[in-house]
Each structure stands twice: as C-alpha cells, then as structure tokens.
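Model it.
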Amino acid sequence: MTINETDNSQALLTEHSPRADWMALAPDVFKAMIRLDTAAKGGVDTTLLNLVKVRASQINHCAFCLDMHSKDALAAGESVERIVQLNAWTESQHFYTAKEIAAIELTEAVTVLTDGFVSDAVYAKAASEFEDTELVYLISVIVAINAFNRFGVSTRMVPGHYTPGAAH
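Modeled.
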C-alpha cells in the first residue's frame, strides 16, 4: 500500500504538483541560500537549530520545510513529543529550556513582523540567554529558514519525499 492508497472509505487525496523547480531554474540563488544556511547554522547548537527551523516552518505553513526539518530533528535525536508540542509551546514550556524558549520567541518575532519590529522585551530575553555572536548566528538561522519557507510555499514544494542525510 502506498501513501495515497488505503481502503476506499479512507483514500488520501492526490499529491499536488509543484509550481516551479526553483532550485533548478535559479541554481545560483539556491547555491547562495545553501551558503547562507551553512554559514548561519555553524554558530547554533543542532537541537536549537532544528527547533527554530521547525517552528518557523509551522508559522509559515511550509509543509516541505516542516517535513524536512522534523525528520532532521528526529534523526538528530529530538523527541517526537517536543516536536509535536512546539506548535503549542506557550502551554507546554516545561518541555523546553529557558534558552530554547528565548529562541522560539525570537523565531516567532522575526518570522511574524506584523508589528513592524522585534520587541525590546523579546530581544532582551534572547540576549540574556545567548552570547552576542551566538545571538547573531541565531538570527541568521531564523532569516535563512524564513527565506527557504517563502520559496517553499510560493513554488508549492511537495512534502513527504525528504530523507535525512540525503543531498538536498
């Protein structure tokens, strides 16, 4: 039975087609994005990196990135429980450290700029948990995943085919 085959009463919908293969159509842009992502994540702990990428992808409704980064987090040893609770972290803060909560709050503030800025309170909380250089790298990771999310949702990248450790 494949992912789109079940009994007749519970048949899954057909997978949508992508709008454009942006990575193939603009390889120089894709390579630049990979360089940004590689540079940014070099300064952030893997566990924190995965939480930030999953949370931003949830907010941006990027199913492709959510699939990818949830799988990466699980492959790196993250618990299913913490990934599932991430969308409701304000009600389940006890699953995370103070440093992780500060990063999640900063991720939300940078991702959702409807107020036009990241508040002083959110920034101060993050600054109290991270060294200056580490904080700038964290912001870089947040900026990079948001850019990837926007490519994913605008070109309708198809989730469900990513394998951790495979070239992407």
